[in-house]
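Mods, move this if it's the wrong board.
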Amino acid sequence: MALRNVSKIVLCCLGLALLTSCGNTIRGIGKDAANTVDATQAAGKSVEKAAN
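Not the wrong board. Structure tokens:
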């Protein structure tokens, strides 16, 4: 019975760790996407200036 309770606690801790890492990954992807948009806009402005 004690082993069963320990197993449940370990599984809960692993689940929380996985959820935390997923949250960090999603936040990082959002930042990368925002940086990509900014870089694309900057490149577009550079091309526009060069064309003029």
